[in-house]
Design goal:
Blueprint: E1 7-13, H1 15-27, E2 33-35, H2 38-43, E3 53-58, H3 62-69
Antiparallel strand pairs: 1-3, 2-3
Length: about 70
């Protein structure tokens, strides 16, 4: 994944589920990044999106990632 590549969110989950999804995508050859607010992780806050984790992939692979996750 190059630093110039546009990333898009393909799924939003809780911390543990997000790591499982990231591993699933990577096992299929799709690089994935997790994006989240650190306060939600440190304090366990799940209000106003603080407990949410965005699973992000390169835009060119977003459709394939969604198909793998069954969110098309």
């Amino acid at each position: 994944m190059s630093s110039e590549e546009q990333l898009v969110t393909v799924y939003v989950a809780r911390q543990m589920q997000a790591h499982i999804i990231k591993g699933r995508l990577e096992s299929e050859g799709i690089p994935a990044l997790l994006s989240y607010e650190s306060a939600g992780l440190v304090y366990g806050i799940t209000v106003d999106g603080l407990g949410e984790v965005k699973i992000m992939v390169p835009q060119r692979l977003a459709q394939e990632a969604k198909e793998i996750l069954g969110v098309v």
